[in-house]
């Protein structure tokens, strides 16, 4: 008997036939209503691909919204805290946006095609927010999550892989620039962006061509240490790069149930993205200005270098008097740097004025029993790892 | 050219704008009023309203006295049988009147009137001041809340409990618990739902009545007056004050938007391109127009946009004016009765049936009416408030207006047989017309529903209930703010207080 | 000392009466429960009214029953098992359907078929409603303080109420904004509330259903948004707002409670209708039953609604006149009816694809708020809704104990049905006409439904009144409007489960926090009795 599946739990991405074939573990993860691999083989191998060769990740579930219309530029500038008024065509900007209380809703990247067309990419669903915010602006908001397939190629050989694939002259593309290529008769938009803190690119293509593109890229990269890359490995690379993750390092203000969980840009180290000098009003400006003037920022998000080699997952951070001063939001043992690092949300002045003499209480699993470790930490720059090749123009090629 | 010319620029010369202007100007401040229409007064206009309840003392005092003559206006609940109930606001006489219908009702009426009067007095003080904010850690705000709580408690345990119960109660339950006369129920229920988007059986309809009584500080039917000369006289008195206080008034000066510099309102731009600058800008326009036109969506946070978008301000009252060639004969009505406001609202169920279709913008064939006869000049007229006329009617007002007017006249003819022969001309002003001609978005009398979620510190929207908008330097003084609703000028007075504090 | 003396007599063996009785028995008291019917359970029963089928013939689903009560009374030991819903659906006349599922992502994808904006707005909506659930949850367990009293206990209680709102941990520190949101939520109509989030009629109609079930309010009535909360604040295994079936029907709940009560030495006497409370020297000392027995106790706890407690079994002269007046004006309006149906097979609902879990819970067919409000307008006129809102479910789909394999039991809850039918009131003929009307309405969405019917039972508010003892057939034992909630329930000044008559208490849903198979009024009342008797309270609930 045929079952009518008008209802369906999870969506499959246009790369599903390839990702499911590549997956040896059959370990899946739910992301924005899509199912994507948590890992394909083992997390260490995938991680290494991003630092050694080319890693390929299916980015399709990422929320993608197209902003078009006469006031697309003005609206984008109003939406985010960063000054976008000088943004050039065919560039990408890293942005955050806030609610009326100046609490961060999400971070993401915005792509400028022309002053009439922008695309916003982010982790959480914000279609509703964009539409409500667009009231009074002559713009059209379209959710293109399902109509644009996306791949992320990261790692030192990623430029060479893409060049083999047909992106001629890609090496001259600077970070946060994008360019449209015609490859095998199809348009492929490539931006030099990524979430690994390394040399890397993101491809935005028509879902029809998804499978062919996947195949062609793996063919192009077969001598360049190419490997599919899952969520778990991404988590490792992004911590090393010091990137923040919404609903992990902070709660999206539109999703937070408890008001105390909401964070202002200053509390997650994003103060550099708030530009009061902007000509026009932007959402949250009033509240952010007040926070800045009053100095009422309560917390901060910092990098921690932790003694020992046991990752401080979910640890509570204490001061020398054993008072609770914050928590670890993400932690890892860095295979590249051989450092025990973590991102932590601390109560000020800890992390800003007081950077030493703080401790993490780590519960480390050792053969079914947890051992409690009291580890000394040091507050360090959140960007733990940033190789020179990341920003080099022209990009390194392996030929 | 950002030289500050005025201390305050008031957008809109409605009665609240005029009150506000006078109070500020009295302190030797330079005030300008920009009125979009050719004359000031806004909805305080005999085309729109029938009568004005007494202006609260706190308002007249702060302007320095208004020389107004009041004539009390009785209320008469018309009955098809001719057994009308006439109430004039004097407890002795009203008691006797109701006794003719039911002795139990007469006693209960006094009790009800006393109770409501006491509650309204307790609430009264709260009405006259800007509403406090909660959880704001401001001592004076907490004090205000505490004072209200204390006053309510000082009414005694029994009344306290009764008060707590009445806040969310519907008027129908309270009336049915107390009175047996269906006509009396109809009359009181009519006054409770007048101008609102509630039926007598909707929870919260009782507070409407209490609210109005609290503002005017009078007993149930004792607070209704007709200012000699009507609302036009009221406005002309306010205008006289304005010229005494050197308030400048620009008419036919429609404001396009606020001028903003460094996140602060610094002036206004008129539709003719002229720019005027002032230290403060005060909007007498309704909240929605203030936010979306004056302030501009580009300058608002998304959450504020959401709140303004869902601010409920759809009008539900239409005004029918009938110019007469002679006075119609109302059954069993004497000359005194004709000077009263005549209410056609024979029962609670009648009102409720009327209310039902309006919820989804449909028309009722038998609307609730409040009729006032104007007979003080050569051309008598009947001014009729038609309750539950939707803002945008299903099918479009232009297509159904005539039928609607005829159905209203048909109802009146049940009480005045010869009405149809007395009519010279008929004009119906729907909420839609109000919006177009008087610049009130939604065409709501009160610039926004009087329901608990839009009252006190929530009026018009949370975060803007203290007469300040979300833009520094831009204030609101219209009926959309606390306490709002009705012709009394408290909103204008309170706004002036806040603005003067900031100046 | 007279015969038949106990510590406590509970009048009525409904779920609140049994909860109160069990808590008191557990505290070591000798408790007797008197029940007028030959079966126990009040409105939480499973009855075999047609051989082979079990009917949950009053309440039919479970969500609100406080987990702490289940834990304290160890109801699992006595057979209680809750089965979560798989989903819920509203069928549409165009052949489509709208569904919610146990799985959040599935729900979002399903809403998206109807409106993309609504699907995303649903996330914000769930967060806001969940926040309200969190705010109210601890209040359910509290005895509302008497705000007029200057006794330290009441002042402390009021502070406790206030302090709760400022709590940092569970609620995360409510700011000014959240306080305003809360005031608005409590006073708005569900229509206005939903309009602030959603655009499509079907989304709004589906969600608004919970706001009108059991009340004499329409979706346009202010205050109906709160009623939504009343149906959302429950939980099934920590999943807030979700609903489930009680395995073996709703009777399993009261059966389990009785099991607990008996283990602690309590006793339930069926067929013992209390005719009056025996009063001596201004104190309640016992009760007399219609069959001529008299029972005496230190404390009497009534599980009857406020009207029956104070106007029927208590003599008027034992109570202050004003109190009696208030009780007379207590609003308790029947607005719901029920059909309990024994089916020979599973009816087809062509709108919902076969195998779709959306059909595994409550099903409806009201597509717009206007339709729903129209149903309410009919009720106000004293008619049953021509186009009713129904909440129908087939528990036997998930619960193997309700009917033989292949056979099914269907529960149809109908909103609105008046207690006083205009033009002459209820009689057998009109009751059957009403039943046929509902069957016709359902048949519109299920072609083979009529053919599968083996037997059905029609329940009007009149039946609920006369059989179960719910005055006017109001399922909440009193309207859930602002004037009758918290400090005002049942009447202002008497919201602490004590009555003006000494030694007499009330534990029914006429008290805070109100109706639904929640047990909180019972547990709260038991606490007050124990305080008065100076017996320490134990358990997770307190």
Describe the 3D structure:
The complex is a heterotrimer of chains A (399), B (503) and C (542). In chain A, 18% of the residues lie in helices and 33% in strands. Chain A is of the alpha+beta class. Chain A is globular and about 65 Å long. Chain B folds into 2 domains: 6-68 and 229-312 and 448-502, FAD/NAD(P)-binding domain; 74-223 and 317-390 and 394-429, Polyamine Oxidase, Chain A, domain 2 (Alpha-Beta Complex), CATH 3.90.660. Chain B has helices spanning 15-26, 57-63, 91-99, 103-128, 139-153, 157-166, 171-178, 182-193, 205-216, 230-244, 287-296, 302-309, 335-339, 348-358, 397-413, 419-422, 431-438, 490-502, and strands at 6-11, 31-34, 70-72, 75-77, 85-87, 225-227, 248-250, 255-261, 264-270, 275-283, 317-324, 341-344, 369-374, 381-387, 423-429, 474-476. In chain B, the strands form 3 sheets. In chain B, strands 1, 2, 7, 8, 9, 10 and 16 form a 7-stranded mixed beta sheet that branches. In chain B, strands 5-4-12-13-14-11-15 form a 7-stranded mixed beta sheet, with helices on both faces. Chain B has a two-stranded antiparallel ribbon with strand order 3-6. Chain B is globular, with a radius of gyration of 22 Å. The mean pLDDT of chain B is 89. Chain C is of the alpha/beta class. Helices cover 35% and strands 18% of the residues of chain C. Chain C has 17 helices and 20 strands. In chain C, strands 1, 2, 11, 12, 13, 14 and 20 form a 7-stranded mixed beta sheet that branches. A 4-stranded antiparallel beta sheet of chain C has the order 17-18-15-19. A 3-stranded mixed beta sheet of chain C has the order 7-6-16. The model of chain C has no long low-confidence stretch (mean pLDDT 91). At the B-C interface, helix 6 and helix 14 of B face helix 6 and helix 13 of C.
